């Protein structure tokens, strides 16, 4: 009895905490009805609001008894979809049998059925006006190639509405992250319940921000990778990573702009920190091809702040109306804020994060006259991109003698001239050891997942370094760091830089002091 009361109280608490009415729907795809029933229980436990029964995934299907069983034994409301191959599904059989099965689902008590726009006339004719009052009709359209213009999307929604749909659904494909803006525009102005998704990694925003823009539901998978359409997050990530139930019209949008970007732990760090203090924001991965186009498209105050990573740190400078003097001197930006006038302000927290982590790593050394253990040290920076510039600048500021090594010598030389350093090509680095006790900082993506066996320097050369730092933090211990440790050097991981640079970004994003212990605890498992 106690358990029932407790779970009831928990449910009431969850409902009380819920700030939006957008539903989470878990697609159920399995070979058999029995397997589907197991997945339905899993969906209930995971926190989904309803399930989409993908009838086309069943290896054998006996319509009346199977639909009856699935409806009666499902612990959640049901949406029946019987997707044909011509609309991206698995069913390749007779069309009338397919539509009859959907009609049967309606008759037997399904809460929703999904009928494709291309089939709706035939379906309506077969109904003869006998539509169930309980069952809501979703009429859907899927575009696996692109996202049409706003005008074309508006016309599509009008056609779906005119077909008798209770709920409009369309899914498009993101060729660029800016495609999602047109879908948000349609969603926010829709006068009818609407499900609007943009498929693919570049469309992830459309799936997370449904509650902000008024979408009827979003889809969340039960397992990573087991998706019914490209780019679906898991139910667990929607609820626990993105705080989906707390999102609403006033939620501020933050994100990390990069390419690639899905490896970044920033959403984990910031969203948990936002939740811990009740800050109304959400932080997402933003896979961006063209940063200038991104900022032109997402120019509203809702898009409030951004971390910026490879390869956009230098191009981001040109997007900012105001740039912090240090970032200007470095020539790279890794944090961008939207001012109240809508203009962008750029700054650089990379060098603070990296240099402070390296100094802490060296603290065992005798403090030098300037107060920094870096003063007078020979400091080799691998990479001449945004992070390389930041760390070279920071090391120089602390009195180190800086050497830039890069795949293309010309890039290394350009940066060396700006910073007041020497330059090498990366090929020369393994034979470069004018002295011992040098410091090495890798700022490239060499060694990052999935290419974890790559390293920028031979193990033999590492014996000349007293400390090695790697900006890569997926994996935490890269091949470079493992071999440096084996060679007797102290190591500083990219996680330490990541946490260090995130402190200042968090404070700039929220106006609140960074929860440093929470940051360390979150990242300690990685």
Short description:
Residues 494-520 form the SDH C-terminal domain. The protein has helices at 2-17, 33-46, 63-73, 95-108, 120-127, 150-162, 179-189, 204-208, 210-213, 235-241, 266-277, 291-297, 325-330, 350-362, 386-397, 409-419, 426-429, 479-486, 494-510, 516-523, and strands spanning 23-28, 50-54, 78-81, 112-116, 136-142, 167-173, 194-199, 217-219, 252-258, 281-287, 303-308, 322-323, 335-338, 344-347, 378-382, 401-406, 422-425, 438-442, 465-470, 490-492. It is of the alpha/beta class.
Describe the structure.
- The chain has 526 residues and is an alpha/beta fold.
- Helix content is 38%, strand content 19%.
- It contains 20 helices and 20 strands.
Q: Count every beta strand, where a strand is a DSSP E run of 2 or more residues.
A: 20
Biggest sheet strand order reads 7-6-5-4-3-2-1-8
Rg estimate, integer Å: 27 Å
**Roughly how much helix do the residues carry, as a percent range?**
25-40%
Structural class: alpha/beta
Number of alpha- plus pi-helical segments: 20
- Separation, N- and C-terminal Cα atoms: 40 Å
Contiguous low-pLDDT stretches (5 residues minimum) are 1-13
Largest sheet: 8 strands, parallel
Strand content is 15-25%
EC number: 1.1.1.25
Domain Shikimate dehydrogenase substrate binding N-terminal: 256-336
GO molecular function, one term: shikimate 3-dehydrogenase (NADP+) activity
Domain Quinate/shikimate 5-dehydrogenase/glutamyl-tRNA reductase: 374-445
């Amino acid at each position: 009895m106690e358990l029932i009361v407790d779970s009831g109280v928990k449910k009431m608490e969850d409902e009380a905490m819920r700030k939006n009415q957008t539903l989470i729907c878990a697609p159920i795809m399995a070979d058999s009805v029995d397997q589907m029933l197991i997945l339905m229980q899993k969906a209930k436990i995971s926190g989904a609001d309803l399930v989409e029964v993908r009838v086309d995934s069943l290896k054998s299907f006996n319509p009346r008894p199977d639909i009856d069983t699935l409806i009666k034994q499902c612990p959640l409301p049901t949406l029946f979809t019987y997707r044909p191959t011509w609309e991206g599904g698995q069913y390749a059989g007779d069309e009338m049998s397919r539509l009859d099965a959907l009609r049967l689902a309606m008759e037997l008590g399904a809460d929703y059925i999904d009928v494709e726009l291309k089939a709706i006339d035939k379906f309506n004719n077969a109904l003869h006006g006998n539509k169930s009052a309980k069952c809501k009709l979703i009429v859907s359209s899927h575009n696996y190639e692109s996202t049409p213009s706003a005008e074309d999307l508006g016309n599509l929604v009008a056609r779906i509405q005119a077909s008798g749909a209770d709920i409009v659904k369309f899914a498009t494909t993101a060729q660029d992250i800016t495609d999602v803006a047109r879908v948000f525009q349609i969603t926010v102005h829709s006068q009818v319940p609407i499900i609007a998704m943009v498929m693919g990694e570049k469309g992830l925003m459309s799936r997370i921000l449904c509650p902000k823009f008024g979408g009827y539901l979003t889809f969340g998978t039960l397992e990573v990778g087991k998706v019914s359409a490209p780019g679906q997050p898991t139910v667990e990530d929607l609820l626990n990573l993105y705080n989906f139930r707390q999102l609403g019209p006033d939620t501020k949008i933050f994100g990390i702009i990069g390419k690639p970007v899905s490896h970044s732990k920033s959403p984990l760090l910031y969203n948990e920190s936002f939740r811990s203090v009740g800050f109304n924001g959400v932080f997402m991965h933003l896979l961006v091809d063209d940063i200038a186009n991104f900022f032109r498209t997402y120019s509203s105050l809702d898009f409030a702040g951004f971390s910026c990573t490879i390869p956009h740190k230098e191009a981001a400078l040109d997007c900012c109306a105001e740039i912090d003097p240090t970032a200007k001197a470095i020539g790279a930006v890794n944090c961008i804020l939207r001012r109240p006038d809508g203009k962008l302000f750029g700054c650089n927290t990379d060098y603070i994060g990296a240099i402070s982590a390296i100094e802490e790593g060296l603290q065992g050394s005798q403090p030098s006259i300037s107060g920094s253990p870096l003063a007078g040290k020979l400091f080799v920076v691998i990479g001449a991109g945004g992070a390389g510039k930041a760390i070279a600048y920071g090391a120089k500021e602390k009195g180190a003698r800086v050497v830039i090594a890069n795949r293309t010598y010309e890039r290394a030389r350009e940066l060396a001239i700006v910073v007041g350093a020497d330059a090498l090509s990366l090929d020369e680095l393994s034979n470069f050891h004018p002295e011992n006790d040098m410091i090495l900082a890798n700022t490239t993506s060499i060694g990052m997942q999935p290419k974890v066996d790559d390293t920028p320097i031979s193990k033999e050369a590492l014996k000349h370094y007293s400390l090695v730092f790697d900006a890569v933090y997926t994996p935490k211990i890269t091949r470079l760091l493992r071999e440096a440790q084996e060679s007797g050097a102290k190591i500083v991981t990219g996680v330490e830089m990541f946490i260090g640079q995130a402190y200042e970004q968090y404070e700039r994003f929220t106006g609140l002091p960074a929860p440093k212990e929470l940051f360390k605890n979150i990242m300690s498992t990685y």
